[in-house]
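Form 7-S
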Amino acid sequence: MAPQTKLDTTWNSKDTQIYYAKKYRQVLSSAPACALAVVAGAPLENMKVRMQSCHFPNAFQALKYTYRTEGLRGFWAGTLNPLVSITVSRALGFSIYRKAKYTFDSWIETATGRSPLQHVNKPGTYPDLSTVTCFTGAGMVSGGVTAVALTPVELIKNATQTSVLMASRGKDTGLGAGGEKNVARVSSYMSMKRVIARQGVLGLWTGFRLHLLRDVIGSGIYFGIYETTKQSLNSYYGAERANSAGAVAVAGAICGVGAWVVTYPLDTMKTRAQNNLVGADHAPRPSSSTTKPTAALSAAFNAAAKAASRSSKWKGVEMIILRSSIQNMIQMSIFEQAKMFVDNLSFSDGSSTLPEVERHFGRDRKLYKNDQL
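Output:
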């Protein structure tokens, strides 16, 4: 490996640009992948949220009603404005997953004498208990941490997506004639203001416990299935590298489906709890300085419990299965290809690895001054 002194370290140099691209490749690779996946899956996500929020006999009726009352705009409602925050949150999730993965790998290697990360990147190997534990555990940690940031984002998104539907609830079953398009639509900013006015700032975390449970379980299953499927397909078909395009696409399509099938009832309860809070015309409000934030939060949870007890928890599951397959196939394919592109960038001295990092079978190790290469 070439010493760092051979590199051009001036601020505007190509070496410096490549250095920071490699150092932050997780974020640089995941952000555009997440953004494109969110935009591509938005229409199906909107249908899922509407079917969870109101009774529609089937997805086609929900689609017809949305187009009649909101037009094409309705299929991307609540998506474009919070797109940055959703992308940042998911990119953060990938970064946390990577750090947690390395931590679990270190623990397992200390206990068993073998690194799951090195095992999974060796051609011809198959998943075992150590790899499944490493990836599932890291996914659960990532889901738990990002749930704190994503709960307000999803609440505002859901409120914006269903604002027209919630305004007409009780007036139209979804099959009636309907009126003027986009009646009572609110923006993401107005949704946030409405929640804070009614429930205080903590109202933005309505449904947090359901969201946390959903994401801890779902992210664990998501990453566990993704890594396991990808490794199995690579080995079965004799792929020369760990991230072959076909294996990544198939694993991406499957992993989200598995996670959502298990956690979908939790997502439905969370969505209904949040819609009940935002859509109610007479939601409880903090009325004086003596009203404590915990009181607002308690009122929100009581509303959540009532909303969560109604109707089937599986309405719209077909939308999430279809959306998840398409969205995660796009997301993971772009993510892995972007990482590979950054990895292949070469410094001016011909090296392609960070000067302070040693890579062996897909696992990075930071080098210190007393390390010998």
